[in-house]
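Q: Fold this one first, please.
A: Sequence and structure below.
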Amino acid sequence: MTDEPRAVSVVILKGGVGKSTTSINLARQLAERGSTLFVDLDPNGHATNGLGFEDAYHAETDLGDVILEGAATPGDVIRETEYGFDLLPSSDSLEDVETELAGAMQGSARVKSKVVDPLLGEVYDYVVFDCPAYPGMLNNNALVATGNVVIPIEPGSSAIGGYKRTMERLIEPAREYIDVEVLAIVPNKLEDRIDQRTEDRELLESLNTAEHEVNPGQPLPEVVPEFARITEAEFERIDAGELEPPKPGIRHRAALSRSLSHEQPLQDYAPDSDQIAPYEELAEIVANGGIQR
């Protein structure tokens, strides 16, 4: 079902913005298109534990054994989930792995050589990485391994700051050595009206009207998915009362927060949810290697 195998990192240098929720549900929808591996590269293990694999998080053989010493293969660690994708779980030793990678030969290429190169296109059509919320060797490994990035972002005074930090401290430095493509900026956790001066409105305006380039030759609005795209003319019509205010972005829903406490992606916890469609669109963006308007 896929034209080209693809790996992608879900990353932002800010905690609590829905990164694990985005990556889990992206992996779930990609699994509808082809064989998918979800890699939890975040030492806090929020996604691993949220999918019900606490035992794997504390297992004796873990992801560190795969990427540091080669004492294990991915197959020794990968777990099958009930949701159509496999999981390469995080572990409580990954913070130590972060430190050891800094002094390792080709330390930024270990995840690529040990995980992605042997699996992508051979075993899996898609590989999705959930990344730490701080700069370091694990994030560097994810960028080298995937070359593709999805950035989730939420409303609030620090939202754009988190995005800018991610670009300035992670993506731009990596681009000095490798190609990194931002496939999508994903506004999520939205719940307010956009016909008033809310934080939701401010976030959507800033994303949809920015002039700076996020990829070479590609301004920021071009990487905003259709489910979050509002043009300047549409904002004017909304303000004039000529257009019913839409509800763009991934919206806050109780089912989204409850799904992880029930150890399930949204598709399986609440299959009738109106928020599954944005994740389907996001999966299509990843499968296509970018937004096609």
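Q: Good. Now the second chain.
A: Here it is, same layout.
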Amino acid sequence: MAKVGYSVYRRVTNANLLRKICLLSLTLPLLTSATTKLVVAEESEKANAQYEIGLWGDLPYSSAQEVGVTRLIDDMNSQKLTFTVHDGDLKAGSNSLCDNALYTKALGYFNALQAPAAFTPGDNDWTDCDRPSNGGFNSLERLDYERQVFFSTNFSLGQRQLAQEVQTTPLCLSTNGATPCVENRRWTVGRVTYATLNIQGSCNNLCDTAPDPTEYAARNAADIAWMKETFKVAKERNSAAVMLISQADPGWDQTDSTRSPLRDPKTLVQTDGQPDGFKDFLLALRDEVIDFRKPVAYVHGDSHYYRIDKPFLDVKGRRLENFTRVETFGDNQSNGTNDVHWIKVSVDPNSREVFSYQPQIVPGNRVAVPAP
């Protein structure tokens, strides 16, 4: 197995050795028995070394963007990335089918990436599939299918694979009843812990064509539990930082009505009259961020506007200094490949802020100002 960043991988078949690795605060897959061959990160003297990861999402939304995504993948592959994460939405929200071919094509994109490729679903992938213009599919059935295509093992996608912890408790719903939320993943590289959470746009499945409050309630409880457990694990591993990745922009304050829900930043109550699928999660997240004290990054897509800021306040209206919101590029299909770009994150566990961010403007995807 090839090296991924600074982490060295090897195959493990011995149950005792696997338990020792768990105690060393390394990536522990949960869905595979001790007799199955696993790929796990080995402890090394480089555990504190700097490395780089790639973030992207809300792509592709058109045939032109499909071409742009191939350039984006080539650009990622030209750089030494430890892993990549797509934060959901594999297509446009309307007038595009949620047929099986969609997910097969997306799987091809992810497996074209040389680095391990993580993914979390987006509302365009499943909750919005019940729209007539998307084929009128059963939303939950589409999520079930995504779980089969992208999350059938405890490994990431990509040409090199990263073992991931999986939420195995059957807290979510499928078309057949309770099921594990296998799309919720966690992994630790060096001294930083990462996790994906299935949190969706379109009010987190509480509005749009066929809202499903029962599905939302189950998944929301699962997301909160996974988020809390992630901070617990990060503390046990003495992680220098936590990064969470989901699809939805939940809205953080009263300033951005064109892109996200409006909410009181102190109480986190939504104020725009729409169903609120995020308040309970945000309240729990705020408590964990304050208690953790170290850097926390929250990565999402959904509102299609690249930005890095600090919009999270405490109950007194004070900015949470250790929290950073990161929104990836995406959509803008009317302008072709204008926003088919990605974010490179440099991760240095020994630095004060741990994460530093650099937008990667893919030269072949520039539209308004072509590359020289």
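Q: Anything worth noting on the second one?
A: Confidence is low (pLDDT under 50) at residues 1-45.
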